[in-house]
Structures are given as structure tokens and as C-alpha cells.
Amino acid sequence: TTMFSGLRSFNILASHYNIKFKEVLTDNGPEFGKKESKSKAGHPFERMLTELEIKHRYIKPYRPQTNGKIERFWRTIEEDVIHGTYFESKEHLKEEILQYIYYYNQERPHQSLNGVAPNIFNQNCQRIS
Question: Is the pLDDT of residue 31 over 80?
């Protein structure tokens, strides 16, 4: 479920990169709970965020530009990994994406980071507390 994937991601980012989340921004999909819902405590993703003391923020409906960075990331995955490629199985696709994400974060220069890979940028980034 989304809750387990989110928890796993938070744990990996905390242990490998020393990144701890104070808030998370999601779209308004049912997998993330509902902004207007009074029973947030009943939704697994919302409960997880409450337990981790992470504030949940939602993008405005019908404003995909708010999620522009992740939308661009998905487009990059589509262009660099998926488009024009035949995958023998879901496992093959998963392995290719995992390898690409490693490359993307560890080696690939990013224009927005002055030509530095995110991992190197993160190592040199001053922490906000």
C-alpha cells in the first residue's frame, strides 16, 4: 500500500541520506487520504504521518504544476528508460528503473544543482533545523 511504500521511502532517505521529513506534499488521490475528511485517523497513510509527526499538505486540485518537479521526473524516466524499450517482465522493468534511479541520484549531473549529482549536493548541503 501507499503507507508501506511511504514508510519504506522515509526510512531509506533517513538512513542513507540523513533526511528527516517535517512535512510531505501529495496530490489529492484517495491513496493519500482526503484533505476534507474528518476521519483522517482512519486512513493508513494519514495515521503513518501522524505517528511520524509529519505534516500533510495537499496540492490544489487541478494544478499539476504544483507537483512540477515530480511530474518532470516521471517524464525523464519515461524518456530515458521506458520509451522504446522492451521489458521481458515486470521484474526486468523494476530492475531497470532501480538502476536508473541510482544513476539519477548518484552520478547524473543536474542542471538545477549547478551540474552536481543530488547525492553530492546533499552531502554538501547545510542542514536546516
Answer: yes
CA dist 88 and 35 (Å) reads 40
C-alpha cell at 103: 544513476
CA end-to-end distance (rounded Å), the chain: 31
Q: Please determine, for residue 27, whether its predicted confidence score (pLDDT) is greater than 90.
A: no
Q: Can you give the pLDDT at residue 37?
A: 60
DSSP for 78-97 reads IIIIITT---SSHHHHHHHH
Give how far Cα 73 sits from Cα of 19, 56, 89, 119, 129, Å.
19, 21, 23, 16, 27
Contact 88, 43 (CB under 8 A): no
DSSP state of 36: T
Q: Which cell is 86 given?
A: 522492451
pTM summary value: 0.67
